[in-house]
Amino acid sequence: MLPLQKRLSEIEEMMKKSVDATVREFSEIRTGRANPSLVEGIMVECYGSNMPLKQVASISVPEPRLIAIHPWDPSNIQAIEKAILKSQLGINPMNDGKIIRVPIPSLTKERCDELKKVLHKIAEQGRISIRTVRRDGIDSLKKMEDSKQIPEDARFKGQDHVQKMTEKYTKRIEELLEQKEKELTSI
């Protein structure tokens, strides 16, 4: 039974990572308030490779609706500005040569609706990821049974456990989606 428990915990860990990735993507959707996580993950092309913004600049929030980005190397300021403009955030950076200021405008009804669609897409990607983990996990349990590592009844119990985990983490993504939608509409 030890290999079964180990495999089930691996499957659960992969499902948790799928939920964590969804949470990270949700945090990058702006809700009308300035938040460093909004821009931290934007990929900036500098030094011959793509790097997250948080690795090439310090990010601060001096005012509730303003993000200030201080590049560590001033030669990267154009690349940072370009990356922000290319992102799907719908924000316009202002560059004064030393600092990039990103004002966060109030959300319009249309933009709020667009962001809800993006949120639903992110949530669906998270659910797909969890279902993929479920499928791979069940396949691995079948292989364990075929190679005589576990008996047939243990495989069925394992499959039931994997299905319960799938339902649990899918429900968690739904809760996160509802929470983020409430953030959008409360502004």
Model description:
With 187 residues, the protein is of the alpha+beta class. It is built from five helices and six strands. The protein has helices at 2-27, 37-40, 77-86, 109-146, 152-185; strands spanning 43-46, 49-52, 57-63, 66-71, 94-95, 100-103. The strands form two sheets. A four-stranded antiparallel β-sheet has the order 3-4-6-5, with helices on one face. It has a two-stranded antiparallel sheet with strand order 1-2. Helix 4 packs antiparallel against helix 5. The mean pLDDT is 88.
Strand order of the largest sheet: 3-4-6-5
Beta fraction of the residues?
5-15%
How would you sum up the global shape?
Answer: elongated
Mean pLDDT: 88
Q: Please write the string of helix (H) and strand (E) elements.
A: HHEEEEHEEHH
Structural category is alpha+beta
From the N-terminal CA to the C-terminal CA, the straight-line distance is 52 Å
What are the segments in which pLDDT stays under 50 over at least 5 consecutive residues? none
Major sheet description: 4 strands, antiparallel
Number of strand elements:
6
Q: In percent, how helical is the residue content? A: 55-70%
